[in-house]
Write a structure and sequence with these properties.
The protein is α/β, with parallel strands linked by helices. The chain is 28% helix and 15% strand. The chain has 17 helices and 20 strands. Helix 5 runs parallel beside helix 7, helix 11 runs parallel beside helix 16 and helix 12 runs antiparallel to helix 13. Bound molecules: 1-O-alpha-D-glucopyranosyl-D-fructose.
Amino acid sequence: MAWWHGAVAYQIYPRSFADSNGDGVGDLRGIINHVDHLVALGVDVVWLSPVYRSPMDDNGYDISDYCDVDPSLGTLADLDELIAALHARGLKLVMDVVINHTSDEHPWFVESREPGSPKRDWYIWRPARPGFEPGTPGAEPTNAGSAFSGPAWAYDPQSGEYYLHVFSRKQPDLNWENPEVRAELYQMMRWWVERGVDGFRLDVINVISKTYPPVDGPPGPDGLCYALAQVANGPRLHEFLAEMNAEVGFTQKELFVVGETPGINAELARSFTDPVARELGMVFTFEHVEVDQGDSKWELVPLQLSALKATLAEYQYGLEEAGWNSLYFENHDQARSVSRFGDDSPAFRVASAKTLATSLHLLKGTPYVYQGQELGMTNASLGGIEAYNDLESIRFYNLAVSLGLPSEQLLSVIAAKSRDNARTPMCWDASENAGFTTGTPWLPVNTNYPEINAAAELADPDSVFHHYRKLIALRHELEVVRFGRFDLLLAEDESLFCYTRTLAGDRLLVVANWSAAPADWPSVLPDVTAAELLVGTHPSGELRLAGWESRVYRLG
Ligand code: TEU
C-alpha cells in the first residue's frame, strides 16, 4: 500500500478560499495564511485547483502557461512558499493539471493556428463538412456539442478550418496522438515534481485519447451530440496513461495521482487504478453525482437513496480486489451536498451535513473534502443570471432562453445545480464578507455567513467541522476504516444508508438516517448492545434514530 491510500484530501479552489490583498479574488498568500485551518481539520493532502497563468475563461481550467502562476493569484515564489509551508506541517500538495486542452491563448495554440506551422498538428483541426461553405451554420465537421453548450467545433477564419473544443471555445483540445505533445506535457509535469509537488489531479484525463474519426452522433434537443461522452475513453487511453505514469514517475515516486474521468463505469475505474496496470492511483467517477438528474445535469430528478447506494456499492465491490476508489460528494463543479442530498433547513442542516460526512468517510477509498463542506456550507441563492459567473450556467441559460424556455424555471434549475454554488467565497468568520476579503468579492458571499463560518464552528464542539475532524482522525487511527471490506445492508431502504466494514476480526457498522423522519432500528441489523459507539451525530440514548441521525459502531 502507498501512503496515499490512508490519506484524506482537501480541495482548495484558490479564487474562493482567502484573499490576502483586498482585490476580491482569493490568492496563494491567502492559503498560506490559513494553513492552520487544514492542520486543525487533520487532512493530509491539499488538491489545489489550477493556479497557472490563464485568461480565466473557465477560472483557470484554461491554461496559457503551465510553468507560471497567474498574477491574480500570486507568484511562483508564493507557490514555493505554500509548498514549503504545507510540507513543514506534514501536508502534501497536489497540483490540478489540465492537459486535455490548453487555453486558446497558449503560445502552442497561437502557433498552431498557422496552417503551415510545426505545431499545426498539436491540436485537432478538421475541414468543414463536405458541401458546406466553411464558417456558415451547419458547416461544422460533425454535430459534436461542447460541454458548455453550442458546437464543439470552432471556426478559425485564418486557416479556413475548425478546431475541436470539448469544453469552451477558449479550451482547444490537444492532439495526444502527436508524440511531441505528450513528451512536452510529461516534461512539464516532471518540472513540477522537481519543484516539490506531491502529485496531480488530472482534469478530464479519459478524454485525452479520442474515438476517431469524429462522426455525427445521435442528436439531442439542440441538434448536437454531447462530445464529452462521444469521444472519451478512446482506444489509446491505457497506453497514454501507462506512458505518462512511466515518464513522470507516478508509481515509482509514489505520487498522489487522481484522474478525473466523466462517463466511465466501475470496471473501467478498476482498470485505470489496478496497481498492476501502473496507470493512475484513483479516479473521480461521476455515476453517483448523476443519480439526481435526467439526460443532463439540468434535468432535476428527486434523489432515490437506493440508487445512490447502489452506485456507491458497485464501485466499493468493483474495486475491492484491485484498484482504489476516490470518495467525494462535493467539488468546484458540484452543488453543495447539504443542500442537494441533505436538508439545509435550520432544523437539520448540521445533522444532515454530519450524516452525509459519516456516510462518505466510512467508505473504503480516499475521501475528499471540498472547502466549506467541512462547515456544512449551503448552496448560494444568487438570484438573477447576472449574479452568476460560471460560463456553464450562463451559456446554458442563454441557449435555453433563446429556445423559448421560461427564465424563472431556468433560474430555479440553475440555483439547484450551478457550479457557482460551490464557488462562493469560503466563510471564515462573522466579519464583513465573511473574512474572505476586505474588498468586493468576485462572487457574492453566502448571506448565511454570520452563522455558518469557520470561527464559529471551531469554537463549537458540536459543529460540522468537529464532526469532520473526528471522522478524519478515525480513518488515521483504524485500519478497518482504511482497508476493511465493505458490505451494504438494506440496499432497498429509501431512508437508511447502512453498511459494515470488516478487516479480520474487526467490524464496524455504519447506520445513517437520510431523512428528517425518525426511524425505528431495523431488526435485521447486527446487535449493537455490546458495541462501542465511535462517532455519532446525536447524544446516544435510545436505539431509535432521530431525523438525519447517524452512528458508527465497533461491533464486539
Ligand atoms: O470538469 C470536467 C467535467 O466533466 C465537467 O465539465 C462537467 O462536465 C461539468 O462541470 C458538469 O457541470 C473539469 C473541471 O473540473 C471543470 O471545472 C472544467 O470546467 C472542465 O474540466 C474543463 O477543464
